[in-house]
Amino acid sequence: MLSPAKVKFRKQFKGRIHGVASRSYRLSFGSYGLKAIEPARVTAAQIEAARRTITRCMKRVGKVWIRIYPDLPVTQKPAEVRMGSGKGSVEYWACRVYPGTVMFEMDGVSESVAHDALSLAAAKLPMLTKIVARGA
Questions:
Q1: Domains contained in the chain, CATH given
Q2: Of 48, 25, 38, 39, nearest to 103 (Cα)?
Q3: Are 47 and 71 contacting, i.e. CB atoms less than 8 angstroms apart?
Q4: How far apart are the first and last CA of the chain?
Q5: Residue 135: is its pLDDT beyond 90?
Q6: pLDDT tens across 99-131, in order?
Q7: Strand 63-66's sheet: what is its strand order?
C-alpha cells in the first residue's frame, strides 16, 4: 500500500475539506478518468482496492494513472483506553480529495471497458464520483 517514506511531522491535525479542487481537475494523461463529486478522505487501502479492480477489469491491457497519494497520517487510540494521555499512534494513511479531483486515469482500452472498470472502482471509494472522457 502507498505511504510516504519520510514525513516532516509524524502526526497531523484532522482538518476539514473546504472548497473545490484547484488542481488535478482535468484529464492530463489518459482518455478516461474517475472524478470526485463530493469531498472525502480516501485511505491507502481504498486506493489500492480501486487500482486492483481497474487493472483486473482491463485484463492488464492499457495503462492506469493514480493521481492521488495518501500523505495524511490518521491516528487512533486503542479500544477501551481512558481519556487523556496524548494522541494515538498512526493507524493508516489517507488523502484529502476535494470535489472535482480526477483520481484515476486510464488509456489504451475501449470506452465500454473503461466505463465498466471505472464504475467498479467507484464502488470501492467512499464518495460520489463520475466518469469523465477526453473531449466530452
A1: 40-76+89-133 (3.90.1170.10)
A2: 25
A3: no
A4: 33
A5: no
A6: 999 999 999 999 999 999 999 999 999 999 999
A7: 63-66, 102-107, 32-36, 129-133
Tally Cβ neighbours within 10 Å of residue 135: 5
Quick one: cell of 35?
472524478
pLDDT, tens digit (0-9, with 9 covering 90-100), for 29-71 = 999 999 999 999 999 999 999 999 999 999 989 999 999 999 9
| Side chain identity at residue 103, one-letter code | M
Give the three-class secondary structure for 42: strand
- Residue written as cell 482518455? 31
Q: How far is CA 101 from the centre of its chain?
A: 9
pLDDT computed for residue 60 by the predictor: 85
Q: What is the CA radius of gyration of the chain?
A: 17
